[in-house]
């Protein structure tokens, strides 16, 4: 399927933009009860300066999208450094944070960089401003790196934490934080929240929400059996829901079907799982080639029969009968 088909299906379904892009666009955030609670907890933890905050959830459940929504909801008095390169050593993370926050390094040693960061945080606190460090995919951080990050929480006054640190990752992060060498970090966690997969009714509302934001007039574009199948395949994981739904719209457009039924979902899943067009599409392509070949063969035989009639003086009615018989054999 040509890439331009993905753009054409927007017009076919009356959409202003693609509703199921894989990018973490906070405009498309669907707040299930669990997502709403997690966002409220994150806002509370940052605004109340709880220090360490942990957010966990399976891959694709919308953690990064939620973090972008959090950034939008924080007031202008909060500076945010968002670190997504979780395989960096501590010194690399520290350098990234300084650059992200616009802090002059003050020197090449770790001590000088920590002093520069501390001075920045103290000045912001003096003017009533807050600072947040978000570490995404934190389950990949080495225990030694996490311990160094814990030491950043020592930047504090007698009454408040100068730096709020969000550790965000897969459920494995919770297991890593139970390591004996990270006991001091675990004791400093002021708030924990998690995001579970969507339930069936939430999956239905998730799809409707994204369609509405994308400009759809028909929010029942996906039938109930189709949503059931999407839920069955995705397990309620938003990322997988997006991928399946995007392919469904493409297949629906190719078939010129205004509603996405379960059969289209099955074909989209088959395509995703096998990496090849579903059998129905292959059959259509083969049938088309067969029909073209048959028409070519009939034309060729017609010419040959005409030559036979002329050359052997065959009676015309006999020739017509023979041609019809050949055509019947080649084209059912």
Short descriptors:
Helicase, Ruva Protein, domain 3; Rossmann fold; five-stranded parallel sheet; 332 residues; 9% strand; alpha/beta; elongated; 3 domains; 14 helices
Structural account:
There is one protein chain. This protein has 332 residues and is α/β, with parallel strands linked by helices. It has three domains: 4-18 and 201-277, Orthogonal Bundle (Helicase, Ruva Protein, domain 3), CATH 1.10.8; 33-195, P-loop containing nucleotide triphosphate hydrolases (Rossmann fold); 292-330. It contains 14 helices and five strands. The protein has helices at 4-12, 33-47, 63-73, 90-101, 110-126, 143-152, 172-176, 183-187, 200-213, 224-234, 238-254, 262-274, 279-312, 316-330; strands spanning 52-57, 78-83, 130-135, 164-169, 189-195. The chain has a five-stranded parallel β-sheet with strand order 2-3-4-1-5, sandwiched between helices. Helix 10 runs parallel beside helix 12 and helix 13 (279-312) packs antiparallel against helix 14 (316-330). The longest helix has 34 residues, at 279-312. Residues 280-316 and 318-332 have low confidence and may be disordered.
Strand content: 5-15%
Spans where pLDDT lies below 50 across 5 or more residues = 280-316, 318-332
Broad structural category:
alpha/beta
Order of SSEs: HHEHEHHEHEHHEHHHHHH
Order of strands side by side in the largest beta sheet?
A: 2-3-4-1-5
E-strand count:
5
Second rung of CATH, namely the architecture of the largest domain: 3-Layer(aba) Sandwich
User: What's the CATH superfamily of the largest domain, by name?
Assistant: P-loop containing nucleotide triphosphate hydrolases
Radius of gyration: 31 Å
Number of domains: 3
From the spread of the alpha carbons, the general shape counts as elongated
Q: Span from first to last CA?
A: 29 Å
Question: DSSP helix count?
Answer: 14
Q: Main sheet?
A: 5 strands, parallel
The average pLDDT value, as a whole number, equals 85
- Give the quaternary arrangement of the chains: single chain
């Amino acid at each position: 399927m040509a890439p331009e088909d993905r753009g054409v299906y927007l017009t076919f379904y009356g959409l202003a933009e693609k509703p199921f892009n894989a990018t973490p666009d906070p405009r498309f955030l669907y707040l299930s009860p669990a997502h709403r609670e997690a966002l409220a907890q994150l806002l509370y933890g940052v605004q109340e300066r709880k220090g360490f905050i942990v957010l966990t959830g399976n891959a694709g459940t919308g953690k990064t999208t939620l973090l972008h929504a959090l950034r939008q909801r924080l007031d202008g008095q909060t500076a945010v450094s968002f670190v997504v390169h979780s395989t960096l050593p501590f010194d690399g993370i520290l350098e990234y944070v300084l650059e992200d926050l616009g802090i002059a390094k003050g020197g090449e040693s770790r001590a000088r960089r920590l002093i520069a960061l501390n001075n920045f945080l103290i000045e912001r606190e003096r003017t009533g401003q807050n600072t947040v460090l978000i570490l995404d995919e934190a389950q990949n951080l080495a225990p030694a790196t996490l311990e160094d990050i814990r030491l950043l929480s020592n930047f504090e006054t007698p009454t408040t934490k100068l730096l709020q640190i969000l550790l965000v990752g897969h459920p494995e992060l919770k297991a890593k934080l139970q390591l004996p060498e990270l006991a001091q970090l675990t004791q400093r966690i002021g708030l924990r929240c998690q995001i579970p997969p969507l339930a069936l009714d939430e999956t239905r509302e998730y799809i409707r929400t994204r369609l509405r934001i994308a400009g759809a007039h028909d929010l029942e574009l996906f039938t109930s059996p189709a949503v059931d199948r999407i839920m069955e395949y995705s397990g309620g994981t938003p990322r997988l829901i997006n991928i399946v739904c995007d392919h469904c719209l493409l297949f629906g457009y190719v078939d010129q079907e205004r509603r996405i039924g379960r059969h289209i979902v099955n074909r989209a899943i088959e395509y995703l799982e096998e990496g090849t067009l579903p059998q129905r599409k292959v059959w259509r392509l083969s049938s088309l080639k067969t029909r073209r070949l048959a028409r070519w063969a009939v034309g060729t035989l017609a010419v040959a029969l005409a030559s036979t009639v002329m050359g052997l003086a065959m009676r015309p009615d006999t020739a017509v009968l023979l041609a019809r018989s050949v055509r019947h054999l080649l084209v059912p």
